[in-house]
Amino acid sequence: MALPTKLVVVVRADLPHGWAVNAAAVLGLSLGRRLAGPPPQDDKDASGGVHAGLDPHPVPVLSATAEQLRELHDKAGGREDVVTVGFNEVARQARDYDDYRAALAATPGEGIEYVAIAVFGPRNRVTALTKHLPLHASPPPSPSAAAGRRGDLFPAPGDRRFTGPATGDERRLLLEMLSYQRETLRLKCSGLHTDVARRAVEPSTLSLLGLVRHLADVERRWFRCVLAGQQAPPLFSSEADPDGDFDGAVPDPEVIEAAWRAWVGEVAFAEEFVAGAAHLGVEGHDAWRGTVSLRWVLMHLIEEYARHNGHADLLRERIDGTIGL
């Protein structure tokens, strides 16, 4: 007998499979918390083994464009008898739930792009809203893939990297390029939670979290210590433990949060310092390179990020198969 209610998950068509599975899981958990009722009854197999009860609803996973997801959210969200939960780009790119709530509060409704939507309600209503959508499947290869190119742009709608000016004064171009590299690191680490600490292969301790910690210390050294002249020792490494930035990158939520907090703080200091610098010839002293200019530091940071973003490419692909620039 058909159930009187229906549950459907709709995923954006171009979403990589790892993200699609994650989005469907997040929506299922979020929707389940909103629905009242006792948990399903546990069952036993022929050998007496107990199996946790499953919800009787089949859950078709459908595919839609970003525009269709927005339309579905608007239509389904306007019905009192339908429960709608949306998973959006603000949530997908957030480091944690507090970060998501803060980012969401600063994002106008028209600027929200949906990654996936779960819809639950009367069977006829849900069917009417979603019957025109196909089942989610592997997307067709992009033209670049068909031509033999292995990867394309990192799949992030609204990505504005590498779209800034390609002409202009030296200061602006250096700052734009460094900003692109910083944003690439953040994107490569997005949506992973504790997986961000997963290491490459033994015996290497290289991980995305290690890169975040390492680059926080790199930013701190060149801008706080060398250029600003502050007494600011590294946060994650030391003379006694020079590899502490990578060795200490463990899958602990507090460790992960501390790494992101440090990196964001050091980047903010660097941006403020550069904004207040009179010119690119501002100098500082470094024990390794001697006298260095702000110009050299910006060039070095671009090189440093670019090198480690290459590491991040491989680390992210190993975690969930995501590739791209």
Question: Would you give an account of this structure?
Answer:
The protein is an alpha+beta fold and 325 residues long. Helix content is 46%, strand content 12%. The chain contains eleven helices and eight strands. It has helices at 17-34, 66-77, 89-93, 97-105, 123-130, 143-146, 170-188, 208-227, 244-247, 253-276, 294-320, and strands spanning 5-12, 43-44, 50-51, 61-64, 83-88, 114-122, 283-286, 290-293. The strands form three sheets. It has a four-stranded mixed β-sheet with strand order 4-1-6-5, with helices on both faces. Strand 2 and strand 3 (50-51) form a beta hairpin. Helix 8 (208-227) packs parallel to helix 10 (253-276) and helix 8 (208-227) runs antiparallel to helix 11. The mean pLDDT is 88.
Which characteristics define this entry?
325 residues; alpha+beta; 4-stranded mixed beta sheet; two-stranded antiparallel sheet; 11 helices; 8 strands; elongated
What's the short version?
The protein has 325 residues and is of the alpha+beta class. Helix content is 46%, strand content 12%.
Please describe the topology of this protein.
Elements: E1 5-12, H1 17-34, E2 43-44, E3 50-51, E4 61-64, H2 66-77, E5 83-88, H3 89-93, H4 97-105, E6 114-122, H5 123-130, H6 143-146, H7 170-188, H8 208-227, H9 244-247, H10 253-276, E7 283-286, E8 290-293, H11 294-320
Strand content: 5-15%
**Poorly predicted sequence stretches spanning 5 or more consecutive residues:** none
Q: Give the strand tally.
A: 8
Derived from helix and strand composition plus strand pairing, the structural class reads alpha+beta
> How many helix segments?
11
Strand order of the largest sheet: 4-1-6-5
- What is the average per-residue confidence, as pLDDT, rounded to a whole number? 88
Please give the largest β-sheet. Answer: 4 strands, mixed
Estimated helix fraction: 40-55%
Gross geometry: elongated
How far is it from the N-terminal to the C-terminal residue, by CA?
A: 50 Å
Oligomeric organization of the protein chains: single chain
- Secondary-structure element sequence? EHEEEHEHHEHHHHHHEEH
Alpha-carbon Rg, integer: 24 Å
